[in-house]
Amino acid sequence: MQLQPVLPFEPITGERLPEGDRWIAQLKWDGVRMLSYYDGARTRLVNRKLHERTARYPELADASAYCSADSVILDGEIVAFAEGKPSFQQVMRRDSTSSGKLAGLPAVTYMVFDILYVNGRPVAGEPLSERQRLLTRYVRPNDNVQLVTNFPDIAGLLSVTREHRLEGIVAKDLDSVYAIGGKDKRWQKFKHYRDLIAVVGGVTFRGTIVNSLLLGLYDEAGRLTYIGNAGTGKWTQQQWRAITDRMKAEASEQCPFAVAPSRSKEIVWVEPRTTVKVEYLEWTSHRTLRHPVIQAQTETDPATCTFGQA
Questions:
Q1: pTM for this model (two decimals)
Q2: 172 with 280: CB under 8 angstroms?
Q3: CATH no. for residue 283?
Q4: Average pLDDT for 242-249
C-alpha cells in the first residue's frame, strides 16, 4: 500500500523560552524539511509543499538502508554543510537541481527528528517521548542519516547557537502529539536575526498601498546595490499608508540601483532618501538578504548605509 503524503507539523515563533522538565530543545537545522515514506518496497521523499524530491537525493532513496521497519514515515530536515555549519544556500543547490545533474553538488545529511507511522501503524497520536523511543529503535544512523539530539537546557542551547552563528533552536513538549498539518505552541522556534539600516530605492504596490520596499546599500565605489525586498513585518496599516504617501512624494523615473532588479516593470522607483531598519536571517551567496523584515523607518543619513555595517 502506497503511503499518502501529509503536511508536516510546524513550530510557531516563540516569544519566551518554555520551562519545565517536559520540554527539550533541538537545533534548528536551516535545511529543507522532508518526510521519507517507505512502504516496504519503495521510498519517496516529499517536501513540506507535498512535492516529491526523491530523485534529487539518491543517497536517501532507499529507507531500508537507514531504517529497519517494514514500513515507515519519518520527518526531518535535509542539510548541507559549508565550513562546518548548515548552509541553506548549499542545500538549495541540491534541491533545485534536476535528477541526473548531481555531479559536483554538495553532499547532504538527513537529520531525522520524528516518526509518524511504523510497521503499518500510525503513531502520530503518541506523545513525542514515545515517538523518539521508536526512532532510536528503528532508525540506523549512517554517513547520510542522523538522529537529531535532544538538549534539556533550552536557554543554554540557544546561547550556544547564537555564539556559533547558527539559525536557532526548536523547543518541543515531550507530551505533544504530532498534529498533521498543524502549527501550535507545543513546538516553538527561536531564531537569531541580524539587522542593518538600508536605503529604499523602489516600491511595489498592492492596489493603492505600498506592500514591499526594495532595499539597497552603498558599495565602496558609492554605487547603490540592490540587496532584496521586504514586506509587511510588524507594521500597521497606518504605517503602510504613511510610507505610501512618502514614496509617492519621492517617486522618480530613474532607477537608483547600479543594477536594476528583475521584474523592474512592476516597480515604482524612488529617490534614495528614505532609510529603514531591516531584520534578516543571513546573507545569501548572491549578496542579498535572506528573510528580510522591515522593523522601522529611521532618520539615518542614506550615505552611511554601506556594506560596512553588515
A1: 0.79
A2: no
A3: 2.40.50.140
A4: 95
